[in-house]
Amino acid sequence: MAADxxxxxxxxxxxxxxxxxxxxxxxxxxxxxxxxxxxxxxxHFTRLPGVWYHGDFAYVDDQGSLGCSDDTIKVAGKRVxxxxxxxxLVAHPSVRxxxxxxxxxxxxxxxxxxxxxxxxxxxxxxxLG
Length: 129
Fold this sequence. Notes:
CATH superfamily of the largest domain: Luciferase, Domain 3
Strand content: 35-45%
Distance between the termini: 39 Å
Shape: elongated
Order of helices and strands: EEHEEEEHEE
Structural class: mainly beta
Number of strands: 8
Number of helices: 2
CATH topology of the largest domain: Luciferase, domain 3
CATH class of the largest domain: Mainly Beta
CATH architecture of the largest domain: Roll
Strand order of the largest sheet: 1-2-3-4
């Protein structure tokens, strides 16, 4: 599957949230909506000519991992991919695994909350901050 993340002009982007597209067909792809093929083509193929537009936001990190906007956290109007936060957390030598989630906030809409699993033998401390 030729998945890509693009900016509003259809250019491939990395390290920031963009729009999810497929640059080629794949066997599981539907050919249309039941009794409304034109609507399907209009929604998925006219936004960015030559590519299938998903209609969702996504993010590709420096390692090429793709995360969809179902995972996108909107903080004070800015979209943040949890993969960005998780990558920063696991970059710390004491962190083995990490997950970032959006938590409701009365002013910002959501804020990011990260959870980490530490490396074996590492104890939680305020120094990990």
